[in-house]
Amino acid sequence: MLRGYYTVASGMMTQQRRQDTLSNNIANAQTPGYKQDQAMIRAFPELLIKRLSKETLPTTRQFTLPTDQQLGSINTGVYVQETIADHQQGAIHETGISTDLALINGEFPDETGGLFFGVQNGDGTIGYTRNGNFTVDGAGFLTTNQGHYVLNQAGEPIFTDGQTFQVNNDGVMTLAEGQIPLHIAYAANVNELVKEDGDLFQTDGEALVDARTIAGVTYSIEQRFLETSNVDEAQTMTEMMQAYRLFETNQRVLQMYDQSMDIAVNQVGRIN
Question: Which residue has the higher pLDDT, 268 or 92?
Fold first, then answer.
């Protein structure tokens, strides 16, 4: 019975973490370029149950031998192993704002490949995002709405000096002083990226390379357009209700265990 407590508790904790993940997806459903998270649920290893007993041999000395009988296996609960970002491209819609850029996927040499805008984090490292909802700050630099500098192909912040600019389909920005290629980063395996701050990704090791240097990579940049999040709100709400119902089911099982334990402790052993 005590093992049942732990099994049910693991189910409740798993559904709680799943609910947290789904809630975060819903909260970012209107965030441009946001990639929804999926909770990967795994089962703990099953345990083999045996009945231990003794068998008396029909001999003059009545020898006894330990024996065991295999009864079957029992599950020990579930857990959320990890959350994985779904990098499927969101819908593209027109905004009419010149600083909005949509990065549209083309063809990749790798099935798990993906493209990102390169931005500079507060600590100077390079981050990656699909959120092209950019703006020009007071100093004239092109930044994200979170204040991260948008980088050029050389990995440097882009200084616009407050001027209007045009961006062609190859991701080259044209200003009065000349042209500045944007840093369009390519990841051969998007599942190896670490998600941070909602729509920002990091690498565990070396920085991603510019997509223009990889053969077989095609893409398109659309100015005055944005990529929406890939969160399916209706499906996510359905999954949230499912997680809630499963949590309630585990809760009722836990209450039954508690009632059975109460009877075993306070009534079964009572001496009248």
Answer: 92
